[in-house]
Amino acid sequence: MLSHPIHGLVAATHTPFHTDGSLNLAVVEQQAAHLQRTGISAAFIGGTTGESHSLSLAERQALTERWMEVTRGSSLKVVVHVGANCLGDVADLAAQAQELGADAISALAPSYFKPRSVSALVECCAQITSAAPELPFFLYDIPSFTGISLSMPEFLTLGKEALPTLAGIKFTNPDGMMFQQCLHHSEGAFSILWGTDECLLAGLALGATGAVGSTYNFAAPIYQRITAAFERHDFATARAEQKRSVELVARLASIGYMSAAKAVMKMLGVDVGPARLPHGRLDAAQEKALQTDLEAMGFFEWVK
């Protein structure tokens, strides 16, 4: 077990593309600068928001290399998501992340051929961690995408013995009871990172001190106000700010969350391009309607 506490908001970043769908790595510098301007302490790259399953191994390696170049010497930390169905590819990505100086790695479980037990999941993770023995490792638990619903407290119990670099879990799982069991496992030795933006206040109430999310790319001030209000016991303000998050996420999801979120980034001056298939693309009319609705709800004032 490797202690590596992560506190505050971690942005799960988009992978930038040109309009033809090819990588546009020049935008990474703008992304990193934007995160630092908005008070984000770390970037979680190549995850769900980063469309990792739509990237080739070579593209993922190029993405990691660029993020590490851009953030070298800065205060912005980088967590590299290395998960994939092929554990050989995962090991290559983990080794590269360590070589380039990433702060940590994370991986979701193989999800086509699924581990059917916690012990099998730990075996998969052992192949990952052995490729990057110096980096803290966070399992990425997201049952809604992987279709894998295993006991995370049991994973921590077995992983504590078998995975020397296990630091915690990125917990994108609606099971609040399990979250608490993980949070208090081994006397709170692990970092259990909350992964549901639209319910951040619930996570804080349960004891979360760190969170990873996609809307932190473009709406960090909302969540910073939620956290600040919670800390001063101003729950009315915290609930009002969380309601804004819910309204925002619902509007983006109504037309396809990934494409809409990338459109919002463009509106804020960081053009990360379109999403790749199988995600759809917004046409000009949809983008205009989205911007109009965001203006009407006050979004651009919320994130100043």
UniProtKB/TrEMBL annotation:
It comes from the Bacteria. The active site is at Y140, K170. Its main location: cytoplasm. It holds the Pfam family DHDPS. The keyword RNA-binding does not apply. Pyruvate binds at T49, V212. It is found in: Cytoplasm. Keywords: Carbohydrate metabolism, Cytoplasm, Lyase. One of its GO terms (cellular component) is cytoplasm. GO terms for molecular function: lyase activity. Belongs to the DapA family. This is N-acetylneuraminate lyase. It comes from Prosthecobacter debontii.
